[in-house]
């Protein structure tokens, strides 16, 4: 079987996509830059520490004048293709129209996430943060080599040459990048210290609104997703999974399935039974005909109601201490007023518009994967382990991902491994494994369910004197490669983030964690721990303010006196929303402020309640993410994060019924926000010279508490269970 190529797969899709591939890859001879770039960055990207360098190829300039930027992070809607291309174009002084973004191959030596060490991957809103200096340097080096080539050709000093909008000039001499590409390739690599980066005053693209998206193919039909990949002789596989977590296959009768038209084979794999067919529909029909029974002796059989009862009991017991300032117990005992509240958070599905899928081909030489995943290095290692080969024998062809929200960053490479388990039994034959929407909803890897118990005390003057918070839930790091360095002394850092760094000036604060060992399969979900910690912290702070007779914004501002960036977004959001203005009856405002992934976001939600229904009418959002590389992308991510966060705020939840069976199956009963439910959103970006930080996730955490606080302002009801449901009159 011949080695499959990316272009051969796409050529079978549509002519427009063939044209797109030629545009992306057919740049001909030219300049490909491999140069020294920092392997690690400081917390402030613009003050990167000196570190050992290894070659990294990020820029390719073709004789056709196209500048291709190799993007080491997966594009899944968050704007990475646009953001990283902007950084290169800025220092290169290119024309935006000549810039092309292309997914880099899996190669941690060249394309590691500089904030993660020797690992390539996308997550934690780190794409811009870890690439800011790296990609700018890439563009600056390319420009220096083009200028050197022009200086040699024209016999003039390099210092007299100007570059603007993709054109190199000196007097009457002019040349486009493509005309200089081959000569530039012969120039010596400039010393890093000699490459000057622009000052903010010189920026043409960074911080400007005029750049268009570089993943626009999702709008015009040229975007290539895993589902678009087709090869001659390729088989489509669907998997029948056990109905309960932890159950195993007991008996199988595949006679009827194998006799179904289009079905080629039925195979067993560790996670279920795979039906291989000539197309998706045939595979689905064949799967429906499987006769199976399951061994449920090791299955998880608790319902959501049982889980919550257990968690609430555990929240009243002692946990492992994650933070302990002062004497919370003593301060609570002496407090004038104590509020004791329990918060409940359900399991949540990621539910990206593109369900999990993957194309794999296993041969004697290794394995090729076509997919848009977030953890390239982890996936290579996991796949290599299954096949008994070296990670470098696993080739990953990076595609666009149709959403992810953390799901395609699975530490176990779950759906990829399923595809490989099938493909290794069909050596040489490309296999496309597809999950249906029902599979995607029911097979697992959810945001864990949590319970928080928060006890807080006020003195006679209404000052917060005590805070005791206990979080109960599963660890998303248990039994993963990340556990060894992200779980310390029994504390999963992702379970307590957003609570362990509580910024409010509370003299006596104690935080505990109880990690539950059993449950459905779980993993990170957009904004990770802050999805639940922000709600508990921000609704309790609001309740304390009301109890103390203080304005919720003013009280927060005072408690955040040592945190100017928190104060900055809070003040801006409140001012832009008209905090304190008169509103119609049945309408109210709620506020929340949170920091996640080093980005600060405050949101004011204007909410109305009518006939027992909650409607979010408008959200004013203020964000401080350091240097705003692409303001339009930042605004889009805040808007998208608010919409995404409103789903679990109002309607989304995964529940386990009797015996531990998932009750939801598709969007009819795992509901997400509809277009007609999306509020008006107003985004304000704080001007900043700080290093840029992520925006893909930080827009999510504040929206739920802001809405809940608004509902409380209108109705007097403190809703502490998500999704929010008003008590019947």
TrEMBL record:
One of its GO terms (molecular function) is oxidoreductase activity. InterPro entries: Ald_Oxase/Xan_DH_a/b (IPR000674), AldOxase/xan_DH_MoCoBD1 (IPR008274), AldOxase/xan_DH_MoCoBD2 (IPR046867), AldOxase/xan_DH_Mopterin-bd_sf (IPR037165), N-heterocyclic_Hydroxylase (IPR052516), OxRdtase_Mopterin-bd_su_IorB (IPR012368), TAT_signal (IPR006311). Residues 220-298 form the Aldehyde oxidase/xanthine dehydrogenase a/b hammerhead domain. This is Putative isoquinoline 1-oxidoreductase beta subunit. It comes from Vibrio proteolyticus NBRC 13287. The lineage of its organism: Bacteria, Pseudomonadati, Pseudomonadota, Gammaproteobacteria, Vibrionales.
């Amino acid at each position: 079987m011949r080695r499959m190529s990316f272009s051969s797969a796409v050529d079978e899709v549509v002519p427009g996509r063939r044209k797109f591939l030629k545009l992306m890859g057919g740049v001909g001879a030219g300049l490909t830059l491999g140069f020294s770039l920092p392997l690690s960055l400081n917390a402030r990207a613009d003050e990167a520490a000196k570190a050992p360098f290894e070659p990294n190829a990020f820029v390719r300039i073709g004789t056709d004048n196209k500048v291709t930027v190799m993007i080491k992070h997966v594009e899944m809607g968050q704007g990475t293709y646009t953001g990283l291309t902007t950084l290169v174009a800025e220092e290169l002084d290119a024309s935006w129209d000549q810039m092309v973004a292309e997914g880099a191959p899996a190669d941690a030596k060249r394309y590691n996430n500089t904030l993660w060490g020797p690992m390539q991957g996308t997550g934690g809103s780190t794409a811009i943060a870890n690439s800011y200096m790296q990609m700018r340097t890439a563009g600056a080096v390319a420009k220096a080599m083009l200028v050197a080539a022009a200086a040699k050709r024209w016999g003039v000093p390099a210092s007299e040459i100007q570059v603007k909008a993709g054109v190199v000039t000196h007097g009457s001499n002019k040349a486009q990048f493509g005309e200089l590409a081959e000569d530039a390739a012969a120039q010596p690599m400039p010393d890093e210290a000699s490459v000057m980066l622009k000052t903010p005053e010189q920026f043409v693209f960074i911080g400007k609104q005029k750049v268009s998206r570089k993943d626009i193919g999702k709008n015009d039909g040229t975007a290539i997703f895993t589902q678009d990949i087709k090869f001659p002789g390729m088989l489509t596989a669907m998997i029948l999974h056990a109905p309960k977590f932890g159950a195993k296959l007991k008996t199988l009768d595949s006679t009827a399935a194998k006799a179904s038209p289009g079905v080629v084979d039925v195979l067993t794999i560790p996670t279920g039974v795979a039906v291989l067919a000539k197309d998706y529909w045939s595979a689905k029909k064949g799967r429906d005909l499987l006769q199976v029974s399951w061994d449920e002796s090791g299955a998880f059989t608790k319902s959501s109601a049982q889980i919550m009862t257990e968690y609430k009991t555990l929240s009243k017991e002692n946990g492992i201490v994650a933070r302990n300032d002062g004497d919370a117990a003593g301060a609570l005992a002496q407090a004038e007023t104590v509020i004791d509240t329990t918060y409940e958070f359900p399991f949540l599905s990621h539910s990206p518009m593109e369900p999990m899928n993957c194309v794999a081909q296993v041969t004697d030489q290794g394995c090729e994967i076509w997919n848009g995943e977030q953890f390239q290095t982890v996936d290579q290692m996991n796949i290599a382990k299954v096949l008994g080969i070296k990670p470098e024998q696993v080739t990953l062809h990076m595609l666009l991902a149709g959403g992810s929200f953390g799901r395609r960053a699975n530490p176990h490479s779950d759906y990829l491994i399923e595809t490989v388990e099938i493909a290794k039994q069909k050596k040489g034959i490309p296999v496309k494994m597809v999950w249906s929407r029902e599979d995607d909803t029911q097979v697992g890897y959810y945001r864990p369910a949590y319970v928080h118990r928060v006890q807080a005390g006020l003195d006679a003057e209404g000052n917060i004197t005590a805070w005791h918070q206990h979080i109960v839930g599963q660890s998303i790091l248990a039994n993963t490669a990340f556990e060894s360095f992200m779980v310390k002394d029994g504390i999963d850092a992702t379970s307590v983030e957003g609570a362990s760094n509580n910024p409010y000036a509370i003299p006596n604060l104690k935080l505990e964690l109880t990690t539950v060992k059993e449950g459905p399969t779980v993993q990170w979900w957009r904004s990770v721990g802050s999805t639940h910690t922000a709600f508990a912290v921000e609704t309790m702070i609001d309740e304390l303010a009301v109890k103390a007779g203080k304005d919720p914004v003013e009280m927060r501002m005072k408690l955040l006196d040592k945190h100017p960036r928190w104060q900055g977004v809070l003040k801006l959001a409140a001012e832009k929303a008209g905090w304190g203005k008169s509103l119609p009856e049945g309408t109210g405002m709620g506020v929340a402020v949170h920091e996640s992934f080093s980005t600060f976001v405050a949101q004011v939600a204007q909410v109305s309640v009518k006939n027992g229904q909650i409607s979010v009418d408008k959200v004013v959002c203020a964000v401080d993410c350091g240097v705003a590389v692409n303001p339009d992308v930042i605004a889009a991510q805040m808007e998208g994060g608010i919409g995404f966060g409103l789903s679990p705020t109002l309607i989304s939840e995964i529940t386990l019924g009797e015996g531990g069976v998932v009750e939801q199956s598709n969007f009819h009963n795992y509901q997400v926000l509809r277009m007609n439910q999306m509020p008006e959103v107003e985004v304000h970006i704080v001007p900043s010279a700080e290093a840029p930080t992520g925006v893909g996730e930080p827009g999510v955490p504040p929206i739920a508490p802001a809405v809940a606080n608004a509902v409380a302002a209108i109705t007097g009801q403190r809703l502490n269970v998500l999704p929010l449901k008003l008590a019947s009159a």
